Amino acid sequence: MAQKHIEFDITIIGAGVVGLSIAKTLAEQGKLSVLVIEKNESFGQETSSRNSEVIHSGIFNHIDSIKYQFCVKGEKLLYDFCDQNKVWVNQCGKMIVSGKHEQNNFENFVHTLEEKEFNFDILNSQQTQKLEPSILSDQSILINNSGIVDSHGLMNQLYRISSNHHTYIFGSTPVEITKENEQYHLTIQRKHQEIEHIKSRVIINAAGLQSYKIAHHIMGEALQIPTMQFYKGSYFSLSPQWTNKFNRLIYSLPSDNDSLGVHVGFDSTGKSKLGPDYEHVEDDAWDYSVNIQSKEKFYALAKNYIKNLDITDLHPDYAGVRPKLFYSSNQFSDFYIQEESENGYPNLINLIGIDSPGLTSCLSIGEYVYKFV
Prior knowledge:
Low-confidence stretches: none
Helix content: 25-40%
Distance between the termini: 33 Å
Mean pLDDT: 95
Oligomer: single chain
Number of domains: 2
Radius of gyration: 21 Å
Order of helices and strands: EHEEHEEHEHEEHEEEEHEEEEEHEEEH
Strand content: 25-35%
CATH architecture of the largest domain: 3-Layer(bba) Sandwich
CATH class of the largest domain: Alpha Beta
Number of helices: 8
CATH topology of the largest domain: FAD/NAD(P)-binding domain
């Protein structure tokens, strides 16, 4: 007896903030039938909800990178969407601090901002103190268009819009995907081991931490990019006395690796936090616990620019894992967003290595992917 296949125009694998944004764009732009598959019990439970919730401006991304292009466009789209859909957002700005020993790095970073034609101010220590009384810095850079967003509130609204038009199945994993003629055949295992068979004209692989594995499963050696690497980032919250002590995001100068460094952030309640650090972890060997031994490392970094910080003010909070793809540079990762016709897989769209600024870029990525379907 032949297997019965349910047919969709488009199948999205992954319901993180990027998958949700693609689904939202599809819901608004057309009447195509769309299935969204998510392995977890709800949307946005991995990288999308385990990050700093920062709306980036692109200052830390290379001007020629894909990250930079999507970030710059996505920032405005995100502010507009949050305003229209009543998602909490705070365009608080960002301050990059430095010490006297970092003068060369400071000047080099200022040059990159000038190259990108960003508006910014350079502050001396007294001007820094006036704006941020709890911060120590010999020279600072003030960027006004960075901010913080409630990522959960954002994803709730994306899901609300898209789920009115699309089919979502949670607790489900594609265990087999094959290309046959003009369609892709998917075998999906549900949480109670039930098996379903799906036919889909288009596959959009937005599976986050699993995106490379899924792409390689479908394409094999035709996928000619390196495997992803994974970096765990932990966060420490600060004691209640630090609530509402910071008016802006506080960052150090960019480092020589792909990390943005340990910075000061806060949420809608004013609760302050430090993070993330940058710890390489093996594929599938990660966990989301915060290593209490990291406390001294966090404190050693943060005490240089937070006045009167005590190590007892730091408390383990949460951790996340960032998927990074070093395919165009050995030093800095970039997004891989590709419709794979030229590699023999038409209507397969892979989104691999979507880490920071993926949250900022999500709506611009959604609009871009729509062009391929």
